[in-house]
User: Fold these one by one.
Assistant:
Number 1:
Amino acid sequence: MDKFLTFTIVGLSTAAIYSVIASGLVLTYTTTGVFNFAHGAAGMLAAFCYWQFHFDWGWPTPVALVVVLLVLAPLFGVLLEMVIMRNLEGTSETTRLVVSISLLVAMIGLSVLIWKPDESRPMARFFQSSAPISVGPTTITWHQMVTLLTAVAVALGLWLVLTRMRVGIAMRAAVDDRNLTMLTGARPRRVQMLAWAIGTALAGIGGILIAPGLVLDASSLSLVIVSAYAAAIFGRLRSLPMTFVGAVVVGCAEGYLQGYLPQSPFLTGLRTAASVLILFVVLLVLPNPRLRGRIRSREFFPAPTWKGALGFAAAMVAGGVILATTLSRPDLITYGQVFSLGIVALSLVPLIGFAGQVSLCQLSFAGIGAVVMAHLGGGGNPLALLWAALIAGGVGALVALPALRLSGIYLALATASFAIVLDRWLFLLPRLSVFGLFEVSTFNQGSLSVDSLTIFGASFADPGRQMILMSVLFALAALLVVWVRRSAFGRILVAMKDSEAACATLGIDLFGTKLAVFALSAALAGVGGALYATQLGSISPGNFDFVTGLPVFMMTVVGGVGMVGAALFCTVSLYAVLPLYSALLPSIARYAVVLPGLAGLSLARNPGGAVQDVREGFLPLRTSPPAIGATVGIVAGLYLLRMLDVLGNWPFAVLLIVVPMAANAAVQGLSRPEKAEEPGADVPLEWRGIVRPWTEADRIELDQALGVNEVEIHGAT
Amino acid sequence: MTPGPASGTAVAAGARTVDRAAAGDGAVENLLELRSIRAGYDRIDVLFGVDLEVPRGSVVALLGPNGAGKSTLLRVAAGLHLPSSGDVVVAGRRVNGVPAADLARAGLCLIPEGRGVFPNLTVRENLRMMTHVGCGFDEVEEEAYHRFPRLRERRRQTAGTLSGGEQQMLAMARGLATRPALLLLDELSMGLAPIIVEELYALVAQIAQAGVSILVVEQFAGVVLGVADQAAIMINGRVARTGSPSELETELSGAYLGA
Amino acid sequence: MARLEVRDLTVRYGGHVAVDGVSLDAEAGRVTGLIGPNGAGKTTLFNVVSGLLPTQRGKIFLDGRDVTRMNPSRRARRGLARTFQRLELFSMLSVRDNVRVAVDSRRSWSRDPGTAADATEELMGRVGLTELADERVDALPTGQARLVELGRALATRPTVLLLDEPASGQDDQETRAFGGLLGEIAASGVAVVLVEHDVGLVMRACDHVYVLDFGRVIASGTPEEIRHDEAVLAAYLGTGVGVRT
């Protein structure tokens, strides 16, 4: 009984923290429609700031608390709203998701930048030195007391604000009917800013309360949010009272597991994964949403042509050969991931880009592929790649099976929780025998060694040969994805992304289609992971965990996830540009940790993705066969010079970039005179009538430009 | 050519102008003027160059079958929907792009179609929301309960649990209590029993007598023609006919049923 | 026997009865009109018949078979197709590929002669889209976009075709041409159900008209009968308000 009571108190105080964090999440989500994956990270930053002020600089507790919770956190929330969230109106759910995930990654990066992760930062509990209060047979610490009281105060405070203050009522009104809110004269913008300010402050309170019980570590504190998600999902991310109920369920479940879970290497992970499992289960029992109609968004991705795809594939192989023959051995190992992880990034293209289904667990599928490779690919057996595809694809279908009822943010949460269950539990399991029939094992509680591939007796242990092999496989995978997009299946995927309702009324089997694309994508990720494993030689769960996977997801979307080029953009920027940049400018290399996050944030402004911009920029070159020929010739010549050691690596690399750009500019320069001859609207307004005759259309345009009222002019003449 | 948002000063000036015009000051003849309005949703065009005027102190009825674009026109006038071309002129000021909240504070009040209430807020909280335009809560409550005693009994109930008629009363309370200069009403009668519709229109007539300019959109012509000074028939995104209510009454069935 | 039979259908959401005990029939080879004031429940009825919304009571029969519990895709495979009032086109695909998706879908459950590509071209010719085949659907004016939806719906070779305001956004000339096309489609043996606010088109094109108000059928008959029906006049004009209670 004592034990039960003790762990009830533990559970309740955990619940109290979750409820505070989750209520902030619900507040911002309902009032602004942005589900903030970075909510926990805001709490994490608050905890770090508080540690800095109070424990490092020795400010008194009240001063530090006031500065963090009443000044910094609300300001940060308002800043987020003004700089980022405001631009997200009218973007797709995927874009909004990526922006908030980018924010998460950027904030983790920021904290690593300011507070070096390897130092230990002890954080005392509140009133740690005071004796615990005894409650019957057990005791309750002052910290627990403070936590519980805070949760009650937050609940009361929120209730007061939301039902007694006009601005709080306006917040709820905006949730009901945003247009009507404006019609009453309330300013929704201001309401949203306030919601962000309060929401961020609540995250801060939660962060400061929970940090002493955990290690002050950026990513684990940021992921506390997953437990808060689980609480919030009880209220379908909308109801505050149900969120508090959810928090109690999740908190107590964790408390009792801590007290009663038998000691077993198979079950230790379960405790940390419990909240995630609860999240997963609750997501699945949520009532089935209606089929959604057309989603109108700013993004558009053209269908790839075979010519373009073959050109891309050829360029990839050429790139692989060039890298393999020019780079030093350590450099080859550094940049080797570009193509193998490129296949993992590529797996997002059919799933998100074509079908519009979000998955945050692609790197976990890659991890499964890697484990398969380690276990079955002894001696570099390439057949293990097939097994990796089959097993990862099968697991993908299994995950998809329940998750398919979900869409958008719920699907993202479900896939994220799957990834975290793998991280915290399944990837940490020891070898497991299933009824003595066969054995299942993942990482065997450590790391696994993986042999490099041997195909038909040819070994690919040498990093150079490996690089070429990977580039060929990446090119093939890209062609596969292009083929999918151009097939009947691909058209259905793209159609489904636009309107599930229309697809259903055309007799298309949505369930089967989604299942197939999930399996395909997971299989592709599995192969990518297996190849990555052969390059690493030794793999551990950390290579494939949830947080590591986020930048891959993010940068692929930033690249423009509807196109295969986005996968290359992703891995080149993450695994080539960033390391290169860090190597060149070691003094500011540490800032590299925030860059991917910042890149993701740019998506709010440019939802079409970076690859499209590049494609459009190179339109002159792409449409001129002689120029392509000339460029290829020059590059080949440069390569020859490099091979003859006439050119060093750096000049060669610079010329590789400069030559296509120069060729592009040249083609553009040559074609310009022809264009100018067309009598077009591109003549500036003030030059019309001078360089070409003045027309009626010009008069109308001038009127409009000057804002002259057309009615009046007609009246006057 | 999409007209850009008007500047902040123009908004403030507009705000003052509505009040002044309502007070009968100055030379502004029409409280609302819509000039060659074109508008649509995504790519579906709904309005094809609509001209409409609401003279100061008068009640204009806008009639027409469903899908004619009447509600869209009101949304354009209230600043909820940006027209793709044309001018929205309120009290002599062009207000294209002015946020709906600013127009509301300036004295324009739109009661939207299908109950202009917040269903998850209580009656009292709904009334509280009406104070954003600058009037006191006490006045609002008093006015609302005075006109609609039933609302007082239900003030702690959430608006979504009220009957259709009570919800519409609550919505109408905003048109009364905030004392707008220009009132836009969208399909007051939708889904309501005829007796309640009659009651509501009697109220509209009273508001009109107090000098408020009103544009009322209705599909049921019969109820509104008694209240209106002028009427217009809208069909397929265009104003097909304007005139006095009695002139138009005979033409309506043709316009609706394609005779 | 009617191709589509709706019996006593009732739909509620949030305490609001959107469709209240509606029964109607659509016969092969005929155009059946469905008109009514705003909020009368026409689009809701279509959503329920096509399976996008659940029903609380009542039954839906396609060719005599009860499809009330089937999902939208299975109903489509039994011969039901529809268009949408607010266009639901596949914006990433060209006009041709919009139709092609439906042709491919049809061929996944039925063995049709000829190639899918030919069938697509033939359908585009039928609705007059051949010239626009390679355009992005987002670039089309509304009138033509509606034709893409029509072509797409026809590609599943429906026996019952529900058209939700297919003429809105079309100019007069397009509407007239569209009326002719409707006649042709019906003549090929399809039961066409038309929701349309252009009452002129309904009166010209339909053989039988149902009038919906407050989610109920308040009148049905030939266009001529409807035009002179007291209840219809009251519903539209609000005259003699007492009549409707």
Number 2:
Amino acid sequence: MIGRWAARNAVRHPIRTGLVVLGIAVASALLLDMTMLSGGMERSFENMLLSRGFQIRMSPKGTLPFDTEATVAGVTPIVAALRSDPAIAAAGAAVGIPVHVRKADSLVTLVGYGVDPKGQGFYQVLEGSDLAPGDSAGMLVGAPAAARLGWRLGDTVRLLGRLDPQSAEAGIERLMTVRAVVRWLYDSRDQLSVGGPYRVVRAMGRFVDPDPGSMIMIKVREGHDVDSVATRLAARYPGVQVNSVAALVRQFRNRLVYFQQLSLILATISLVVAVLLVATILAITVNERLGEVAVLRAIGVTRARLVGLVLIEAAAVTAVGTGLGIGLGLVTAGWLDDILTSFPGLPAAISFFVPEPAAMFRATTVMIGAGLGAAGYPAWLAARAPIALTLRSEAE
Amino acid sequence: MAHSSVVIEARNLAKQYSINAAVVSALRGVDLRIDRGEYLAILGPSGSGKSTMLQLLGGLDHPSSGTVRLLGTDLADLNDRELTRFRLTTIGFVFQRFHLLPVLTAVENVELPMAEAGRPRGQRLARARELLGYVGLASRAQHRATELSGGEMQRVAIARALANEPALILADEPTGELDQATGGQILELFDRLHRDGATIVVVTHDEHLAARAGRQVRMLDGRIDSDTHG
């Protein structure tokens, strides 16, 4: 019965309650977005690196793979040695160079990857079939390049390499046939990329070293410790940078510290706003109903029951607001992610906001907890209302 | 008279309030005994201490000194939870401004004390309807308090006060907000309650109401000035 009183009171001022619910929804949305931001980028980075199960990267020292023209020298014997290592399940080298195609009167520049399908960890075939062993004319096309250049499976295109910057004349040309449309896992959004057999693409680039590699990816066999293997390889190849994905994630986390601080500050602000909203509305409501509270106490309702009612009211308002806020947070996260991941050079597979059930649960729990905490003062007001004094002032 | 017939026994009851650093004595050592089945009116001018007296008798406030024994229980011996439960089961309150909960219907307002006492829903609904019938409002059971007239609200408040079959009914100016005709209906209701055996204490300015009570206690400056029967 008294619960009915509390429930009907909650909708006694629908506009006021609605505005508070809306305020909590906005605060919850911000809290959820900040919760997703604080951990989402790191997880998304890790997922991206492990998407094909390769846990170790070997790359030129002091640079990111494909970021500069620096390469690892003599990759073929290195890959052969890695493949014979009993702790290693798969290994493959990749090289990246600029390649070009003519489209009408213009020249379109693409990233050309030289890949080894036996040990590749950075593309997924979307349509068609992967390069077969010995297929020296096969080409893989990234989905954005296929769309932009109008290429389909089976099309033959002329790839140009070693372009002279003065004359725009190519030093080498190759006719390649599209075997598959792929998703390049580390490409930025709308990046135009193609891939071909490692030896073919390497031959189209300008390299000082005859056997260069931009990166070697290694998959460790089950039962072997990835970090131990990485440490062993680093000792064996001192001229090369060897990193496990876990180590890369740790480095990434250190660089994300500013993001995490920012998200913590904004999440705290959203919580403070929610607490102030709930505390204010309930304090107003309790003060307005102090006469009713005194009557309830007079006719035999205990303090504990009144405190419980105020807490339930706070939990209900916060829960409804948080429910709306989760939806709003997911929408805004998608929108913000769209903006942030369109930054040039950022892999499209990285998400700033990863909608995980754990993040939603955490945001909901924290917000409802904050709502209950905010009800502390109004609940105290209700419990401590002096019956006689309040009834006397109501009668005046 | 046998001891068991005593409903209230107040001894040397005093109450002081601090107002703007000044101490005001609302009650100055009052002794009062009320027996079962009595219909008592407490009269007096504003500030004479009659409402304070009612609040102390009903356990709504604590005396500065003195004791109130209700059905043999010293109210000072009860903690807040026990005192609240005691009010719920032993006392029925009727207030000048009715104090119904506006978001509840008439029947829900009457059900409320029974729900707090833990009575099963069917039982309390039946009793609430019976009580609304007793006060002549059976047809208004599903109306919200805000849809009722002043007299109707006071009758619902009386039904609410009777819900847990209290040993004592305390009414503070029950006709104070009503016109004469409506007030008359409430007085008849109190007469009927008295005839049915209820112990009633009414605080009032209304001499007409006081005259219907079997006993009149007149207060002046926080003391009992006179205590007459008949």
